[in-house]
Amino acid sequence: MGAVTSQEPLPEGLSYDENGDIVNAQGQRMRLKRRRGLRESLVSIVMGCEIFVAFLVAIGLAGLRAVDPVTAYVGGGVFILLALVAAARARYTWAVALSGSLQVVAVLSGLLEPILFLVGAGFLAFWLYAVIMGTRIDRRNAKLA
Question: Does the keyword field hold Membrane (predicted)?
Fold first, then answer.
């Protein structure tokens, strides 16, 4: 699934020139987008939703005075930044591992406010589904290709 090689068929209207570059009908060099796997897409979606919820949780924890407001905002901000990195780089194994560790942090946030155990467990379930089923379907699609 990475770069396009000269053995791969190209979409209609594109061809390879003498240098091996992809060109359109007018002779302009083109670059095809990288194909995203299902695991990458699903993990990015789960992390994007979790970023939104983490923002609201940080505001809620600060408002309830469950923790010091500065701690809530800084902790939420760090969580959000790490989740953004994991979502943006979800094609890499290290990013999927990072997103998994963030799921553990989300579940453990229930120590600050008990309802967050449920929220964290829900996101952990979504994340597990994204990783397991996304990987399974990506492998099946690779065999069929």
Answer: yes
Asked if 44 and 53 touch (Cβ cutoff 8 Å), the reply is: no
How far lies 78's CA from each of 73, 114, 115, in Å? 9, 21, 21
Note the pLDDT tens digit of each residue in 79-136. Answer: 999 999 999 999 999 999 999 999 999 999 999 999 999 999 999 999 999 999 999 9
The predicted-structure confidence for 83-94, as pLDDT tens digits, reads as follows: 999 999 999 999
Tokens matching residue 87: 């979502």
Q: What are phi and psi of 36, to 5 degrees?
A: -90, 140
Residue 7 region by backbone torsions, left for phi larger than 0, else alpha for psi between -120 and 50, else beta: alpha
